[in-house]
Amino acid sequence: MLAVGFDVNGGPEVLRPVELPVPEPGPGQVLIRVAYAGVNYGEMCHRLGDLGAPDGIDVPGYEVSGEVAALGPGVTGLSCGDPVAAFLPDGGGYAEFAVAPAAFAYPLDGISLRDGGGVALSLTTAYGVLAGAARLAAGDSVLIHAAAGGVGSAAAQIARALGAAAVHGTVSTAAKAVYAKRFGYDAVHIRDGFTAHVAELDVVLDPIGGPTRLASLSVLAPFGRLAVYGDAARRPDLSLPVLPLRQQNRSLAGYDIADLSRRAPTLVRAHALAALSLLATGAIRLDITAELPLTSAPEAHETLQSGLNLGKSLLRVS
Ligand SMILES: NC(=O)c1ccc[n+]([C@@H]2O[C@H](COP(=O)([O-])OP(=O)(O)OC[C@H]3O[C@@H](n4cnc5c(N)ncnc54)[C@H](OP(=O)(O)O)[C@@H]3O)[C@@H](O)[C@H]2O)c1
Q1: Which of 56, 228, 232, 248 is most buried (CB neighbours < 10 A)?
Q2: Can you give the residue ranges of every domain in the chain?
Q3: Within 6 Å (CB) of ligand 1, which residues are found?
Protein backbone atom coordinates (compact mmCIF):
# COMPACT_ATOMS: atom_id res chain seq x y z
CA MET A 1 0.00 0.00 0.00
CA LEU A 2 1.00 3.63 -0.46
CA ALA A 3 1.83 5.57 2.70
CA VAL A 4 3.70 8.73 3.58
CA GLY A 5 6.34 8.32 6.26
CA PHE A 6 9.78 9.34 7.44
CA ASP A 7 12.90 7.47 8.52
CA VAL A 8 14.69 10.45 10.00
CA ASN A 9 13.37 13.33 12.10
CA GLY A 10 13.38 16.76 10.53
CA GLY A 11 11.42 19.33 8.54
CA PRO A 12 8.43 18.67 6.29
CA GLU A 13 10.81 17.49 3.55
CA VAL A 14 11.56 14.25 5.43
CA LEU A 15 7.99 13.08 4.68
CA ARG A 16 8.07 10.90 1.56
CA PRO A 17 5.91 8.32 -0.24
CA VAL A 18 6.71 4.74 0.79
CA GLU A 19 5.35 1.28 -0.12
CA LEU A 20 4.46 -0.77 2.96
CA PRO A 21 2.60 -4.01 3.58
CA VAL A 22 -1.08 -3.65 4.52
CA PRO A 23 -1.17 -3.93 8.35
CA GLU A 24 -3.13 -6.74 9.98
CA PRO A 25 -5.66 -5.95 12.71
CA GLY A 26 -4.84 -7.65 16.00
CA PRO A 27 -7.28 -8.57 18.76
CA GLY A 28 -9.73 -5.73 19.39
CA GLN A 29 -8.58 -3.81 16.32
CA VAL A 30 -10.07 -2.98 12.93
CA LEU A 31 -8.41 -2.41 9.56
CA ILE A 32 -9.64 0.74 7.83
CA ARG A 33 -9.43 1.53 4.11
CA VAL A 34 -8.55 5.19 4.61
CA ALA A 35 -10.54 7.84 2.72
CA TYR A 36 -9.23 10.97 4.46
CA ALA A 37 -6.56 11.66 7.06
CA GLY A 38 -6.67 14.79 9.22
CA VAL A 39 -3.53 16.91 9.57
CA ASN A 40 -2.69 17.76 13.18
CA TYR A 41 -0.07 19.64 15.15
CA GLY A 42 0.80 16.41 16.98
CA GLU A 43 1.90 14.81 13.69
CA MET A 44 4.31 17.68 13.18
CA CYS A 45 5.72 16.99 16.67
CA HIS A 46 5.99 13.28 15.77
CA ARG A 47 7.96 14.19 12.62
CA LEU A 48 10.19 16.61 14.52
CA GLY A 49 11.20 13.85 16.94
CA ASP A 50 9.16 14.52 20.09
CA LEU A 51 8.45 10.74 20.24
CA GLY A 52 12.07 9.84 19.53
CA ALA A 53 13.88 8.78 16.38
CA PRO A 54 12.07 6.41 14.00
CA ASP A 55 13.05 2.75 14.00
CA GLY A 56 12.61 2.14 10.27
CA ILE A 57 9.72 4.01 8.64
CA ASP A 58 7.33 5.93 10.91
CA VAL A 59 3.94 6.77 9.42
CA PRO A 60 2.25 9.75 11.11
CA GLY A 61 -1.50 10.29 11.29
CA TYR A 62 -3.69 10.23 14.39
CA GLU A 63 -7.13 10.54 12.78
CA VAL A 64 -8.73 9.09 9.67
CA SER A 65 -12.06 8.33 8.09
CA GLY A 66 -12.77 5.37 5.85
CA GLU A 67 -14.52 2.04 5.58
CA VAL A 68 -13.89 -0.93 7.83
CA ALA A 69 -11.94 -3.41 5.67
CA ALA A 70 -11.33 -6.23 8.19
CA LEU A 71 -12.06 -7.06 11.81
CA GLY A 72 -9.49 -8.38 14.25
CA PRO A 73 -10.34 -11.20 16.66
CA GLY A 74 -12.99 -10.34 19.23
CA VAL A 75 -14.35 -7.21 17.55
CA THR A 76 -18.13 -6.83 17.74
CA GLY A 77 -20.48 -4.02 16.80
CA LEU A 78 -18.73 -3.14 13.54
CA SER A 79 -18.93 -4.78 10.10
CA CYS A 80 -16.81 -4.65 6.98
CA GLY A 81 -17.93 -1.72 4.84
CA ASP A 82 -19.07 0.42 7.77
CA PRO A 83 -18.01 4.08 7.38
CA VAL A 84 -16.08 5.19 10.45
CA ALA A 85 -13.96 7.96 11.87
CA ALA A 86 -11.06 6.58 13.87
CA PHE A 87 -8.48 7.79 16.36
CA LEU A 88 -5.12 6.05 15.96
CA PRO A 89 -3.16 6.46 19.23
CA ASP A 90 -0.02 5.05 17.58
CA GLY A 91 -0.32 7.02 14.34
CA GLY A 92 -0.27 5.39 10.91
CA GLY A 93 -3.10 7.37 9.29
CA TYR A 94 -1.14 8.79 6.33
CA ALA A 95 -1.66 5.53 4.43
CA GLU A 96 -4.15 3.65 2.26
CA PHE A 97 -4.87 1.28 5.14
CA ALA A 98 -4.57 1.84 8.88
CA VAL A 99 -5.27 -0.16 12.02
CA ALA A 100 -7.28 1.36 14.88
CA PRO A 101 -8.55 0.04 18.21
CA ALA A 102 -12.22 -0.83 17.61
CA ALA A 103 -13.05 1.24 20.72
CA PHE A 104 -11.81 4.33 18.86
CA ALA A 105 -13.59 3.57 15.53
CA TYR A 106 -16.78 5.61 15.55
CA PRO A 107 -19.67 4.92 13.13
CA LEU A 108 -20.26 7.87 10.82
CA ASP A 109 -23.99 8.29 11.04
CA GLY A 110 -25.13 11.27 8.97
CA ILE A 111 -21.57 12.56 8.63
CA SER A 112 -19.63 12.46 5.35
CA LEU A 113 -16.31 10.64 5.04
CA ARG A 114 -14.78 14.03 4.25
CA ASP A 115 -15.93 15.64 7.50
CA GLY A 116 -15.18 12.41 9.31
CA GLY A 117 -11.52 12.68 8.34
CA GLY A 118 -10.96 15.64 10.63
CA VAL A 119 -12.78 14.72 13.80
CA ALA A 120 -11.43 11.73 15.73
CA LEU A 121 -8.52 13.65 17.25
CA SER A 122 -9.51 17.33 16.89
CA LEU A 123 -13.15 17.20 17.96
CA THR A 124 -12.55 14.59 20.65
CA THR A 125 -9.80 16.77 22.11
CA ALA A 126 -11.88 19.94 21.94
CA TYR A 127 -14.76 18.19 23.71
CA GLY A 128 -12.51 16.42 26.22
CA VAL A 129 -10.62 19.57 27.20
CA LEU A 130 -13.84 21.52 27.74
CA ALA A 131 -16.06 18.90 29.37
CA GLY A 132 -13.41 16.73 31.01
CA ALA A 133 -10.38 18.82 31.99
CA ALA A 134 -12.01 22.26 32.31
CA ARG A 135 -15.38 21.00 33.63
CA LEU A 136 -17.17 23.64 31.58
CA ALA A 137 -20.57 24.52 33.04
CA ALA A 138 -23.48 26.36 31.45
CA GLY A 139 -23.04 30.10 31.89
CA ASP A 140 -19.21 29.94 32.04
CA SER A 141 -17.00 32.43 30.24
CA VAL A 142 -14.23 30.85 28.14
CA LEU A 143 -11.06 32.00 26.41
CA ILE A 144 -9.57 29.77 23.70
CA HIS A 145 -6.00 30.32 22.51
CA ALA A 146 -5.14 29.31 18.90
CA ALA A 147 -8.78 30.16 18.19
CA ALA A 148 -8.54 29.72 14.42
CA GLY A 149 -6.92 26.26 14.43
CA GLY A 150 -8.30 22.75 14.15
CA VAL A 151 -9.00 22.18 17.85
CA GLY A 152 -9.69 25.87 18.59
CA SER A 153 -12.30 26.35 15.87
CA ALA A 154 -14.16 23.27 17.13
CA ALA A 155 -13.77 24.20 20.80
CA ALA A 156 -15.47 27.58 20.31
CA GLN A 157 -18.55 25.90 18.85
CA ILE A 158 -18.60 23.07 21.39
CA ALA A 159 -18.27 25.56 24.25
CA ARG A 160 -21.30 27.40 22.91
CA ALA A 161 -23.22 24.13 22.49
CA LEU A 162 -22.42 23.23 26.12
CA GLY A 163 -23.90 26.53 27.26
CA ALA A 164 -20.92 28.88 27.60
CA ALA A 165 -22.17 32.43 28.08
CA ALA A 166 -19.14 34.18 26.57
CA VAL A 167 -16.49 32.76 24.25
CA HIS A 168 -13.30 34.71 23.53
CA GLY A 169 -10.34 33.66 21.44
CA THR A 170 -6.77 34.68 20.76
CA VAL A 171 -4.74 34.33 17.57
CA SER A 172 -1.41 35.58 16.27
CA THR A 173 -2.60 37.83 13.43
CA ALA A 174 -5.45 40.18 12.52
CA ALA A 175 -6.28 38.04 9.47
CA LYS A 176 -6.76 34.99 11.70
CA ALA A 177 -8.97 37.04 14.01
CA VAL A 178 -11.26 37.90 11.11
CA TYR A 179 -11.36 34.25 10.01
CA ALA A 180 -12.03 32.91 13.52
CA LYS A 181 -15.08 35.10 14.07
CA ARG A 182 -17.12 32.68 11.92
CA PHE A 183 -16.99 30.12 14.74
CA GLY A 184 -19.18 32.21 17.04
CA TYR A 185 -16.58 33.97 19.19
CA ASP A 186 -17.83 37.06 20.98
CA ALA A 187 -14.39 38.57 20.39
CA VAL A 188 -11.05 37.37 19.03
CA HIS A 189 -7.95 39.17 20.32
CA ILE A 190 -4.36 39.28 19.16
CA ARG A 191 -2.51 37.04 21.65
CA ASP A 192 0.20 39.59 22.47
CA GLY A 193 -1.40 41.74 25.17
CA PHE A 194 -4.66 39.76 25.38
CA THR A 195 -4.88 40.30 29.15
CA ALA A 196 -5.88 43.91 28.49
CA HIS A 197 -9.12 42.69 26.90
CA VAL A 198 -10.34 39.90 29.21
CA ALA A 199 -10.70 39.32 32.96
CA GLU A 200 -12.41 37.04 35.45
CA LEU A 201 -12.79 34.09 33.08
CA ASP A 202 -14.13 30.75 34.26
CA VAL A 203 -12.11 28.70 31.75
CA VAL A 204 -9.01 29.27 29.60
CA LEU A 205 -7.92 26.65 27.04
CA ASP A 206 -4.17 26.76 26.50
CA PRO A 207 -2.42 24.74 23.78
CA ILE A 208 0.37 27.35 23.50
CA GLY A 209 2.52 27.36 26.66
CA GLY A 210 5.32 29.70 27.74
CA PRO A 211 4.38 33.30 28.62
CA THR A 212 0.82 32.75 27.29
CA ARG A 213 0.31 30.10 29.99
CA LEU A 214 1.48 32.39 32.78
CA ALA A 215 -0.63 35.29 31.51
CA SER A 216 -3.66 33.00 31.24
CA LEU A 217 -3.53 32.17 34.95
CA SER A 218 -3.79 35.88 35.74
CA VAL A 219 -7.16 36.31 34.01
CA LEU A 220 -8.97 33.49 35.84
CA ALA A 221 -11.99 34.27 38.02
CA PRO A 222 -12.31 32.68 41.46
CA PHE A 223 -12.51 28.89 40.87
CA GLY A 224 -11.43 29.50 37.27
CA ARG A 225 -9.70 26.62 35.45
CA LEU A 226 -6.71 26.83 33.11
CA ALA A 227 -6.82 23.71 30.94
CA VAL A 228 -3.42 22.96 29.43
CA TYR A 229 -3.31 20.61 26.44
CA GLY A 230 -0.42 21.58 24.18
CA ASP A 231 2.83 23.46 23.79
CA ALA A 232 2.55 24.88 20.28
CA ALA A 233 4.98 27.71 21.07
CA ARG A 234 7.56 24.99 21.80
CA ARG A 235 8.86 26.92 24.82
CA PRO A 236 10.52 25.26 27.83
CA ASP A 237 8.14 23.95 30.51
CA LEU A 238 7.22 26.29 33.36
CA SER A 239 8.07 25.86 37.04
CA LEU A 240 5.08 27.21 38.90
CA PRO A 241 4.70 27.75 42.63
CA VAL A 242 1.49 26.15 43.93
CA LEU A 243 0.75 28.60 46.74
CA PRO A 244 -0.60 31.38 44.44
CA LEU A 245 -3.15 28.91 43.05
CA ARG A 246 -4.54 28.44 46.55
CA GLN A 247 -4.31 32.11 47.45
CA GLN A 248 -6.11 33.18 44.25
CA ASN A 249 -8.66 30.34 44.02
CA ARG A 250 -7.34 29.22 40.63
CA SER A 251 -6.91 25.72 39.20
CA LEU A 252 -4.65 24.13 36.64
CA ALA A 253 -5.98 21.14 34.67
CA GLY A 254 -4.29 18.93 32.11
CA TYR A 255 -5.54 17.00 29.09
CA ASP A 256 -3.64 14.37 27.10
CA ILE A 257 -5.51 12.02 24.81
CA ALA A 258 -2.61 9.54 24.66
CA ASP A 259 -2.73 9.04 28.42
CA LEU A 260 -6.55 8.93 28.40
CA SER A 261 -6.60 6.34 25.63
CA ARG A 262 -4.48 4.04 27.81
CA ARG A 263 -6.08 4.71 31.21
CA ALA A 264 -9.66 5.73 30.36
CA PRO A 265 -10.52 4.63 26.81
CA THR A 266 -14.25 4.76 27.55
CA LEU A 267 -13.89 8.49 28.27
CA VAL A 268 -12.15 9.05 24.93
CA ARG A 269 -14.97 7.23 23.17
CA ALA A 270 -17.65 9.12 25.12
CA HIS A 271 -16.09 12.49 24.27
CA ALA A 272 -15.77 11.49 20.60
CA LEU A 273 -19.37 10.29 20.32
CA ALA A 274 -20.68 13.42 22.05
CA ALA A 275 -18.73 15.64 19.64
CA LEU A 276 -19.80 13.58 16.61
CA SER A 277 -23.41 13.88 17.67
CA LEU A 278 -23.07 17.70 17.78
CA LEU A 279 -21.59 17.52 14.27
CA ALA A 280 -24.36 15.25 12.97
CA THR A 281 -27.09 17.56 14.26
CA GLY A 282 -25.43 20.64 12.77
CA ALA A 283 -24.81 22.22 16.20
CA ILE A 284 -21.14 22.47 15.20
CA ARG A 285 -19.37 22.27 11.86
CA LEU A 286 -15.93 21.53 10.52
CA ASP A 287 -14.28 24.21 8.38
CA ILE A 288 -12.11 22.28 5.93
CA THR A 289 -9.84 24.88 4.37
CA ALA A 290 -7.39 22.56 2.62
CA GLU A 291 -7.80 19.15 1.00
CA LEU A 292 -4.57 17.84 -0.47
CA PRO A 293 -3.57 14.49 -1.95
CA LEU A 294 -1.78 12.14 0.46
CA THR A 295 1.57 12.73 -1.21
CA SER A 296 1.26 16.47 -0.51
CA ALA A 297 1.64 15.85 3.23
CA PRO A 298 4.94 17.85 3.26
CA GLU A 299 3.05 20.91 1.98
CA ALA A 300 0.37 20.52 4.67
CA HIS A 301 3.06 20.21 7.35
CA GLU A 302 4.89 23.26 6.00
CA THR A 303 1.73 25.36 6.39
CA LEU A 304 1.15 24.03 9.92
CA GLN A 305 4.72 24.54 11.02
CA SER A 306 4.77 28.12 9.76
CA GLY A 307 1.58 28.81 11.74
CA LEU A 308 -0.35 29.74 8.58
CA ASN A 309 -3.03 27.03 8.82
CA LEU A 310 -6.71 27.89 9.29
CA GLY A 311 -9.45 25.55 10.47
CA LYS A 312 -8.95 21.93 9.42
CA SER A 313 -6.64 20.49 6.75
CA LEU A 314 -7.16 17.03 5.27
CA LEU A 315 -5.18 14.60 3.16
CA ARG A 316 -7.30 12.82 0.53
CA VAL A 317 -6.22 9.19 0.42
CA SER A 318 -8.78 7.24 -1.62
N1 LIG B 1 -3.16 17.04 24.61
C2 LIG B 1 -3.75 16.40 23.62
O3 LIG B 1 -4.19 15.28 23.78
C4 LIG B 1 -3.90 17.09 22.31
C5 LIG B 1 -4.61 16.50 21.26
C6 LIG B 1 -4.75 17.21 20.07
C7 LIG B 1 -4.15 18.47 19.93
N8 LIG B 1 -3.44 18.96 20.97
C9 LIG B 1 -2.80 20.29 20.88
O10 LIG B 1 -3.77 21.22 20.46
C11 LIG B 1 -3.12 22.26 19.77
C12 LIG B 1 -3.85 22.51 18.48
O13 LIG B 1 -3.66 21.39 17.62
P14 LIG B 1 -4.17 21.49 16.11
O15 LIG B 1 -3.72 20.25 15.44
O16 LIG B 1 -5.60 21.85 16.08
O17 LIG B 1 -3.29 22.68 15.54
P18 LIG B 1 -3.78 24.14 15.12
O19 LIG B 1 -4.36 24.84 16.29
O20 LIG B 1 -4.60 24.02 13.88
O21 LIG B 1 -2.39 24.78 14.73
C22 LIG B 1 -1.47 25.11 15.73
C23 LIG B 1 -1.63 26.60 16.11
O24 LIG B 1 -0.75 26.88 17.16
C25 LIG B 1 -0.42 28.25 17.13
N26 LIG B 1 1.01 28.42 17.36
C27 LIG B 1 1.54 29.11 18.39
N28 LIG B 1 2.87 29.09 18.35
C29 LIG B 1 3.21 28.38 17.26
C30 LIG B 1 4.45 28.02 16.66
N31 LIG B 1 5.64 28.37 17.22
N32 LIG B 1 4.43 27.28 15.53
C33 LIG B 1 3.26 26.90 14.98
N34 LIG B 1 2.06 27.21 15.50
C35 LIG B 1 2.02 27.95 16.62
C36 LIG B 1 -0.85 28.78 15.75
O37 LIG B 1 -2.01 29.60 15.98
P38 LIG B 1 -1.83 31.19 16.13
O39 LIG B 1 -1.41 31.66 14.77
O40 LIG B 1 -3.16 31.66 16.54
O41 LIG B 1 -0.77 31.38 17.15
C42 LIG B 1 -1.23 27.53 14.99
O43 LIG B 1 -2.25 27.77 14.08
C44 LIG B 1 -1.66 21.86 19.62
O45 LIG B 1 -0.91 22.48 20.64
C46 LIG B 1 -1.69 20.37 19.87
O47 LIG B 1 -0.48 19.86 20.35
C48 LIG B 1 -3.30 18.32 22.14
Answers
A1: 228
A2: 2-119+286-316, 131-258
A3: 40-42, 121-122, 125, 146, 148-152, 171-172, 176, 207-208, 229-230, 232-234, 255-257, 304, 307, 309
